[in-house]
Every structure is written in C-alpha cells, then in structure tokens.
Amino acid sequence: VIHIFAKKYANKLKDDLKVVTDENKEINGLVNNYSELESQIEQIFENLNKYNESQKSIVTLGNQQKQAEKSVHNIEKVIKDDIQSIKNLKDSNEYSEYLEIREKINSLFSSENKIKTNVEQQFSKISRPLNKYVYVSSLDKPQKKLLVDLIENPYSVLTVTNKHDLVQILESVRKGVQSGSVSVKDVSKSVSQIDQMLSELDTFIDEISTFDKSKTNLESKLSVFNLEKLSLAENTLTHHQNEKSDLEAKIKRLENEISDMVELLPKHVKS
C-alpha cells in the first residue's frame, strides 16, 4: 500500500514541481522585462530632459544673441558719433593752426642738428686735451662735472648761464697744455684750437640760445588747440571699436553654440 501511494504522490509531486518551475520562469521573465522597461523608461526621461534642456539653452542663447546684436547696433551709433566728434576737432581752425606750428617745430630740428653737428666737430678738435685735463685739473666739483658734460655732450652745456665757467675751463686747459701738465702731440696746434674754440664760444651759445627761444615760443603756441581732448576722443573711439569687435566675436560664438545644439535635438529624439 505504501509503495502504491508513494508512486502516486511522487508523480503528483513531480507534476506540481513542473508547474512551479514553469511559473517561476514566467515570473523571472516578467521581473526581467519590468527591470528592462524601468531602465528604458529612465533612459527615455533622461533623453527627454536633455531635449528640453537643449531647447531651453537654445532659447537662452538666442536671447543673448539678440541682446548682443542690439548692443552692436547701439555701439555702431556711438562709434559714428565718435568719428564725427574727431572730424569736428580736426576740421577746426585751431587744429589747423596747431598742425602748422607743429610743422614749424619739426622744421627747427634740422637747424638744431646742424648746430649740434658743428659744435661737436669743433669740440672734437680739442677732445684730447679736455680728456687729459679731467685727471690733472684743480677745478671745483661743479666745474669738474661741467667739464665731464662738456666732453660727453658739448651742445647740452653751451648756455649763457654756463658761459663764465666754460671760459674758465677752456683757459685752464690751455694753460695746462702750455705748461706741459696736459700732454698733447702738438702744443701750438692744441693752443690754437682752444683759442679758436674760445673765440667761437659766444657764436655757438647765441645760436643755441636763439634756437631754444624759437622752439619755446612755438611750443607755447601749441596750446591754441587742446590736443588732450583729441587724444581722449581717439582713445574713446578705439575703446568702442574694440568693444564692438568683442560683441561680434560673442555673436559668432553664440551662433556656433546654437547650431551645435540644434544638431543635437534630432539625436535626443532618436535616442
């Protein structure tokens, strides 16, 4: 009896286990499908968010682009006004007069160079005794400094104020050459050249003084025109032109960003 019932219930148990196993497979399939669906839905929402964010960014960037274009339009008007302001300044009688004075000052420099060259040529003839005298002189400190400056740049020290000291220095150098304390190859020639320099000293000083007065007089007349005002206007124009260039570069960058985002929209939809 036991064997009969054991066989009977064993078959039933086998059938029940089969049913349970089949149902378990179905449940696992449903669970897996549900998990995959959840993952896919999450991916869909993520792409939807990307799509929506891209659209918002496109609108934001578009507004920024419009604002930048509006700013460019406004600054173009400002630049136009800047150019007109500069033109008005340059068209004024004062500016024309200023340019004429500036031209006269520039023309003076050729005269200055001529005087300077002549002075340097004359002093080069006595440069040896002057350089020698620096080391043996008994001059006081200011005169010794003046002697050094005379050797390095004679044009700069030939002034009415320095005339008395310059004469003393040259006479002292001449005495030094004559006495032999300043050694030179040809004493008589050096003395003659120093005497010539002494005789021409007044002429050089007068020429330089006349030039300086003419230059100072012309420079004082430059105030007829406010050059600082023109420089400020030109700097303002440059600033606004640079600002416009920056805005145009920004517009170009925004256009590229918008274009890139528009291209991404179909990709988000496809995903």
Strand-residue fraction? under 5%
Identify low-pLDDT runs. Answer: none
Shape: elongated
Topology as a string of helices (H) and strands (E):
HHHHHHHH
In whole angstroms, the N-to-C terminal distance is: 67 Å
Helix-residue proportion: over 70%
Largest sheet: none
User: How big is the Rg?
Assistant: 49 Å
Tally of helical segments = 8
Average pLDDT across residues? 89
Helix and strand composition category: mainly alpha
What is the number of beta strands? Answer: 0
Topology:
Elements: H1 2-90, H2 93-124, H3 127-136, H4 141-152, H5 154-157, H6 163-179, H7 187-221, H8 227-270
Protein architecture, described:
There is one protein chain. The protein is mostly helical. It has eight helices and no strands. The protein has helices at 2-90, 93-124, 127-136, 141-152, 154-157, 163-179, 187-221, 227-270. Helix 1 (2-90) runs antiparallel to helix 8 (227-270), helix 2 (93-124) packs antiparallel against helix 7 and helix 3 (127-136) packs antiparallel against helix 4 (141-152). The longest helix has 89 residues, at 2-90. It is elongated. The two termini are 67 Å apart. The mean pLDDT is 89.
